[in-house]
Protein 1
Amino acid sequence: MFLMSKWSVKWAMAASLIGFCTGQWGMAAQESVSLTISGEVSPLMAPVAGQLTALFYESYPRLIERFEKPDRSAPRHIRLVFDKGLTVPAYCSGAEIHVSVEWLTQHPEDVALLTHELTHAVQAYPPNGPSWMTEGIADYARLIYGPKVQPGWSLPARLTQKQSYRNSYRITARFLQWLDEKHPGTVDKLHRLMQEGTFKLEAFQTVTGKTADELWQECVADLAQRKAAP
Ligand SMILES: [Zn+2]
């Protein structure tokens, strides 16, 4: 469609420009990264497309630097597709990320979903690992490498015994954040095992000396004692 391709070209140009101007390339990834946007990008979506573009150049080099597999490069070029009629807010497949036009129309503040999806692009986990780890690490990365302020999205301040580190997404992410404070480097080690396809639950004990269940109990108790953030 002519209109779409015109916008696609415009946004590809804007993407290059913003990346160049913000100078993100020098600080993290050695090679430059790039983004093209296509799909149903109407003029109404232009502001959010611009924010996603800026966020891409902020987040992606840092995600590559921390999470890229040493012996297999993460994609340097990402295709972002604005999709109408998606049943989920977004998904990542290889180097292509689809975002829902309807979701972004209703939740234009949720641009950090891109950081979550970009994490999947770098993870490239083989399919045998547990999805709660995949999603937990993606939300953990969203917290750290997404915008400082993420309206409508945060990790829970506290966790309960009824929940579990297997609950995925933000709950697992909160557990991982706590875990990495207590045992620095643990998230990276677990991530690497996921990437190698050798992750097992016992890895928590191998890395920290405590089982996942013991760590979870400790995490719940520890967070319960912390004062609420001002
Ligand atoms: Zn995900």
Protein 2
Amino acid sequence: MLSCAWHDIRRELGMEIIEEHTVMEYSKVNKKCEKCGHGEAIYYTRQMRSADKGKTTFYTCTGYGHPSQEN
Ligand SMILES: [Zn+2]
């Protein structure tokens, strides 16, 4: 379902290497989805392979699974 979006995100961030899901944190937050307006999202952070990039926070809305991210 999300494979295309995830592929795009990984390409964009240079994360091709990371295939295994190295989930650091994982929880729900009240965050409005920019695409469908859903008010709740799952978020989790991943440590980037390139250390200078630090952590990126990923959000997936629980309505339709729209991904977004914050650096
Ligand atoms: Zn959404």
